[in-house]
Amino acid sequence: MWKGMIYKEWLKIRWFLLIYAGIGILSVVYCFIRVQHDITFSSPNGYWYFLLFMGGQYFSLLKFLPGIGALAIAIAQYFPETVSKRIKLTFHLPLNENKALLTMWLFGAGTLFISYLLQFLLFTGLSLIYFPGDIFVPAISSILPWFLAGFACYNLTALIVLEPVWKYRIFYLIVAVLFVPLLLQSALTDGFSPVNPFMAVLVLLSSFSLLFSGYRFRKGEM
Amino acid sequence: MVKFSRYILVVIAIFSLAIALPRLYWISFEKPIKAPSVFYSCVDNDFFMIRPADGGILTNSNGDEFTRDEFELKLPLNYSRQLTLNRTMPDSINGVEMDLHEISRNRSFFRVRPKDIDTPLPSLYPLFESQSGRANLEMPDDFFRITWRMEFLDSKTNKILEEKSRMFSAVLYNRGFKFPATSINGLPTTRKSCDEGYLVIDGANQLFHIKMIKGKPFVRKVDLPEGLKFKHIACVDFSDKLYYAYLFSTNHEVYVLTQYDYMLQKLDVAETHPELNEVRILGDLFNYTITSLGNGFISTTVLDKDFKFVDTYKESWLTKDERLEGKIAHLLFPFELKLTDNKSSYIRFFSAFHSSFLWLIVSLCLMVLHFIIIKKRKENVKNQIADLAIIAITGIFGFIAVNFFPNKFFM
Amino acid sequence: MSEYAIECNNLTHYYGKKLVYENLNIKVREGSILGLLGKNGAGKTTTINILNGFLQPRSGECLIYGENTQHLTPENKARIGFLIEGHVQYAFMNIHQIEKFYSKFYDKWDNEPYWQLMSKLKVTPTQKISTMSCGQRSQVALGLILAQDPDLLILDDFSMGLDPGYRRLFIDYLREYAKAKNKTIFTTSHIIQDMERLIDDVLIMDYNRVLAQRDVNEFMREFKQFYLEVENPSIDLSKEDFVANFEKVNNKIEIYTYESEEMVQNFLKSNGISYKNFEKIEMGLEDAFIGLTGKY
Hints:
The complex is a heterotrimer of chains A (222), B (411) and C (296).
Chain A: H1 2-41, H2 44-53, H3 65-82, H4 87-92, H5 97-130, H6 133-162, H7 166-179, H8 196-205, H9 209-218
Helix pairs in contact in A: 1-2, 1-3, 1-5, 3-5, 3-6, 5-6, 5-9, 6-7, 6-8, 6-9
Chain B: H1 2-29, E1 37-41, E2 46-51, E3 57-60, E4 65-66, H2 68-74, H3 80-86, E5 92-93, E6 96-97, H4 100-106, E7 108-112, H5 114-117, E8 125-126, E9 142-146, E10 150-154, E11 159-160, H6 162-174, E12 183-186, E13 198-201, E14 207-213, E15 216-222, E16 230-235, E17 243-249, E18 254-258, E19 264-266, E20 278-283, E21 287-294, E22 297-304, E23 309-316, H7 324-332, E24 335-338, E25 350-353, H8 359-376, H9 385-404
Antiparallel strand pairs in B: 1-2, 2-3, 3-4, 5-6, 7-20, 8-9, 9-10, 10-11, 12-13, 13-14, 14-15, 16-17, 17-18, 18-19, 20-21, 21-22, 22-23, 24-25
Chain C: E1 4-15, E2 18-29, E3 33-38, H1 44-51, E4 59-64, E5 67-68, H2 74-78, E6 80-83, H3 95-103, H4 112-120, H5 134-148, E7 152-155, H6 164-181, E8 184-188, H7 192-198, E9 201-206, E10 209-215, H8 216-222, E11 224-230, E12 243-249, E13 252-257, H9 261-270, E14 275-281, H10 285-293
Parallel strand pairs in C: 3-8, 3-9, 6-7, 7-8
Antiparallel strand pairs in C: 1-2, 1-4, 4-5, 9-10, 11-13, 11-14, 12-13
Helix pairs in contact in C: 3-5, 4-5, 5-6, 6-7
């Protein structure tokens, strides 16, 4: 049965997912084309100095990408379910309704995770060509909240799209608009390190949030 | 599971609102608190202030007001250029001839803010050649770190320079350095008059001075009194070339480290907390002035050139929390949450739990309001006890959160 | 096991403060086809939603094969075929994809009737359902339900958007199928003339109440319309016990009743109401429905 669910979810998001994964990889590559350019035009030691002491961030291009990708995938995945209340079909499938929703979430968040992981691995590989861990590790700590913002965006978009009542959609949107930017505020390299673990737990917990609007839909809120 | 998901959403909402609502409140209603600037006059041996909160009036510690010209005459070392232009610069003060060059050479300004201390620090530093024979410093190609040994990384190849690393590590080891370093302090910039390397604290809280002279390591261990530990070391590059650094100890004392003979001299000043307050140290021909600017107070101590106590001045004013807008905030919000603060360069949780319990009034009102909402919707109060408790503890944040995510569950 | 596929007991529901119905009881025998008729807003969709577990009634419960519809087990859900109003399906799929999708969920899946229906549609293999006509979509939705081979079919307004030919096709196919395989059907439709060909039992709802729930043939036999013209146009019979509905234009009167022609005539005579042109009117299901629920 989960194969069936995955098939349906795949049909909905495949193009968005592939395009996002492609853009993600190209963006990482572009970051390092610029690193190469800047090193060529100034000097390696000048560039290291810029990163270490002048607040330079060679990864700043990646800031909004995870969030935008997550938003696109979440909308592609959940919006078709709400058109003509099509989610009824999903709930009518012979499996537990919460399990159905969690399978959908797991697939969406899982594919998102894989595309993030691809970006991350490429970023790591290319970083380690140019920089030592002393520069790379703080960079990872800085981009982690942006990827967390991506997952938060995905979870909260699912919640908002599946909510049956417009008034509450707007309420949820307000919370999302207050919460997600907390992960995207500008900070020094490595500035997020004290809050990263807490934020990661909070975002992880928000994974279940679509169950809430799913439940409200099933109980006939309108 | 579904109920659990609601509570998580309520927590996320409370968390976000506890940041957003106070921020919105303070953006709307915060009034600036303009702290006075305090100077010490070597003419009157008294403190003089500029008070921007009162329209920029100039006073002494008695509150006597002065015109700008009068004020500048009281502080000839601060306004020496202006007085020279006015031809009112005295020839001598306290029996010392006023030589502009000497005044300028003895003038130093140092400032450290809490956010300079609570900040992400790099683990790689450039080690400059201290005696290159060139007028200007040059940025080296390699950067060092001190982990299990002292390692130099070549930025051209991103590889460790093995020979140089071994040479420096061996010298450090021989001088009794305990790896790894816990803090590396220096002025990693080419825009300084000369290079004095780094003051490094090792794994055993010993202080070392490390620099490079003609490609060779220079390592000097600084003798510290028993039990003295530093929380912050700020290297300085002043034209009098007397000291390497200001050192702030964990027991809130301030020291200077003298050049060449590595003497630690303690400043005769009350407890200093650079991690809480902005600390400024002003040096001039006659005195050092140490100012702590904190939340609601400014405290200035004057020392002579041997760091012996001369005089002190303290002034305080109502803090943000003690003013009307702060009290209203205490009523509205049970607590305030921030991710950024002017005392840190990190993103952290800065929570302010209010000492007064005024907010309980609002919480109580909101609980009653919520109770009425429950009754109006003909819902069972029993199922809403958790929500009422959330409102009791988190006030307006909780009230909004539990109503944004309606508590409507069926058996 | 109960002999009923569907059993709703004391169903009460409100939207906000507006009462939809109170203490509604519905029973659907296994193997029967029940048509739920009602005007717009009478609560047809509400009932369907409660039956499918998409709405929690204020009180009361609905059981399908003995299970509360608010917590249907997957096994039970597999026994229920569900057609959403407007033949809604996963419109982003084509007919091959959707068949592949559903086949993974049902053990009894039999794609033969599905492909049989699909072969009659003039659609390309890669054509998305969203680009199909309403009639074509109805065939896809029906085909999927047939392939699922459920024991109970719940069809919400299957006639919506279908032209007469497709409607007829849909009904004939469905009745044939249900009777051959002893399936139970619960259906609503607002085109009532179609229902006559399909249903065994009829359930007529008006605002807040049930007007009739019985065998459709019995109902058609017993429910009658009489036409007469009275001399005194101010006469009003709507309050009389035997009158189910009463319509009057000037002196022309329509009486809807379950009573016999004899009883009505006796009543008129014994109450001294003079009339002429008394006539029993033959009705179809639609006429009977309007007769029972009124024109407004």
